[in-house]
């Protein structure tokens, strides 16, 4: 595992983000962010032991002002690892989903990832270069990134963006002192499914979030795309032609999950 000293984790209040906070070594300083202030405080109290600095920022990543405040705090914090983990999505037919929820999905999963990475990475790379070290960026995509997903259209497309964005940056910056990883988890036992309106995370075989975070941290610097857990076979879906067959089959399965379509 690469040795990082200061990590910024978005979506640190639960699930995979919280797992990253717990899996990083005790001497890694943390800047944790999310909207749930109580969870941030509780995590800070729990993890700030033995002089370890754990800072928190309450921020809604769908909000431009909150993103700017977070970036200002992060610039002072000077991370060498940026974990773009926060994510949102709503299961359901696109035209029946709340438009604000669809917008939030794009703002959190796409816009915040681009804005945070663009704002923080130049200084991260400069510090790495000056110190003869490496920095890292983990972008949490999904096994849903590899195909269109009817009934989860905006979410899956946003995760395709995350995957392609991370892969393209990794190639652009392959001679720079940064390791960029797209993490594509399959079904993982977190609050995500309940928030999104399905219960895939409770499937037998769904991954433990700490195992997902551990696998990702071990993969930084070794892989560009790390696919893990249940449903990871989705990574092979793009080779099936015509694409319509895969989309139709996934649409059939997703209709079983969507409450209105059962
Ligand atoms: N669970 C799975 O099966 C699975 C599979 C593949 C990929 N993923 C991806 O894994 C990542 C983490 O999800 P999870 O499974 O750990 O779900 P989770 O337990 O629901 O955690 C989601 C995190 O994102 C934060 N978040 C959501 N909307 C936000 C907003 N508007 N502003 C700021 N923070 C926001 C939440 O914090 P607050 O509520 O405090 O704001 C929370 O900490 C996501 O990107 C998700 O797409 C999950």
Describe the structure.
A 7-stranded parallel sheet has the order 3-2-1-4-5-6-7, sandwiched between helices. It is globular. It has a single domain, classed as 3-Layer(aba) Sandwich (Rossmann fold), CATH 3.40.50.720. The N and C termini lie far apart (44 Å). It has helices spanning 15-23, 37-47, 64-77, 99-131, 153-172, 192-196, 209-219, 243-257, and strands at residues 6-10, 29-34, 54-58, 81-84, 135-140, 178-185, 225-228. With 262 residues, it is of the alpha/beta class. NADP nicotinamide-adenine-dinucleotide phosphate is lined by residues 11-17, 34-36, 60-62, 85-88, 104, 108, 140, 142, 185, 187-188, 190-192, 195, 201.
List keywords for this structure.
alpha/beta; 8 helices; 262 residues
Helical residue percent band? 40-55%
* Ligand types: NADP nicotinamide-adenine-dinucleotide phosphate
CATH class: Alpha Beta
What is the CA-atom radius of gyration, in angstroms?
A: 18 Å
Strand count: 7
CA-to-CA gap between the ends?
44 Å
Low-confidence stretches: none
How many DSSP helices? 8
Shape type = globular
How are the strands of the biggest sheet laid out side by side?
A: 3-2-1-4-5-6-7
- Written as H for each helix and E for each strand, in order along the chain, the element string is EHEHEHEHEHEHHEH
According to CATH, what is the topology?
Answer: Rossmann fold
pLDDT averaged residue by residue: 94
The largest sheet is: 7 strands, parallel
Strand-residue fraction? Answer: 5-15%
Indicate the CATH architecture: 3-Layer(aba) Sandwich
Q: What is the H level of CATH, i.e. the homologous superfamily?
A: NAD(P)-binding Rossmann-like Domain
């Amino acid at each position: 595992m690469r040795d990082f000293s200061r990590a910024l984790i978005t979506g640190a209040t639960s699930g995979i983000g919280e797992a990253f906070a717990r899996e990083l070594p005790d001497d890694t300083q943390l800047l944790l962010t999310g909207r749930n202030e109580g969870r941030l405080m509780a995590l800070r109290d729990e993890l700030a032991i033995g002089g370890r600095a754990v800072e928190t920022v309450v921020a809604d990543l769908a909000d431009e002002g909150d993103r700017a405040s977070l970036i200002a705090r992060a610039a002072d914090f000077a991370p060498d690892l940026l974990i773009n983990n926060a994510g949102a999505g709503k299961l359901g037919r696109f035209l029946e989903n709340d438009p604000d929820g669809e917008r939030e999905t794009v703002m959190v999963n796409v816009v915040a990832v681009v804005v945070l990475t663009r704002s923080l990475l130049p200084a991260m790379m400069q510090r790495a270069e000056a110190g003869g070290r490496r920095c890292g960026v983990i972008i949490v995509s999904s096994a849903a990134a590899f195909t269109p997903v009817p009934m989860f259209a905006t979410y899956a497309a946003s995760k395709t963006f995350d995957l392609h964005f991370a892969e393209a940056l990794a190639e652009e910056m392959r001679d720079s002192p940064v390791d960029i990883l797209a993490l594509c988890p399959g079904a993982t036992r977190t609050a995500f499914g309940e928030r999104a309106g399905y219960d895939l995370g409770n499937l037998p075989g769904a991954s433990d979030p700490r195992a997902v975070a551990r696998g990702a941290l071990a993969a930084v610097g070794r892989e560009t795309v790390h696919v893990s857990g249940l449903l990871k076979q989705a990574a092979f879906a793009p080779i099936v032609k015509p694409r319509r067959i895969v989309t139709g089959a996934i649409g059939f399965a997703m209709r079983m999950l969507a409450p209105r379509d059962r």
